[in-house]
Amino acid sequence: MKGSTVTSAAEQTLSLTEICTLVAGCIKGTGPDAVVVTPDTELLLTGILDSLTVMKIVAELERSLGIDLPPTFIAAKNFRTPQTLHAAVVDTQHAAVVDTQHAAVVDTQHAAVVDTRHAAVTAAEPPR
């Protein structure tokens, strides 16, 4: 989690089923001790997740999505169930794309203002 830097993979997302599989893969337990993870599995209330597992899930999400999730992503409300986790991922990706698009618009507007001012200054200069 280095920040909210978005790469070209920002438009890529994981399905709810893929989130369930990712969570199940991060939870310890195999064989008869394996936990079945469905979209409505209560992850926090049942104690399935601990802080280390949450960090494993975040690292795996970042790797799978090609983005850095912001520190604010790690909130209990996002890890209640795989369904709430999926919604948080989609919301975070959407916000990152909007931020990136906004920054591009601002950069374009700034460049236009600089070009206009430069043209005005150049036009006002006396000929040499």
TrEMBL record:
Q: Which PROSITE patterns match?
A: CARRIER
* Residues of the Carrier domain: 13-93
Q: Which domain of life is it from?
A: Bacteria
The membrane spanning regions, by residue number, are none
UniProt-listed InterPro entries: ACP-like_sf (IPR036736), PP-bd_ACP (IPR009081)
What name has this protein been given in UniProt? Acyl carrier protein
The top of its lineage is:
Bacteria, Bacillati, Actinomycetota, Actinomycetes, Mycobacteriales
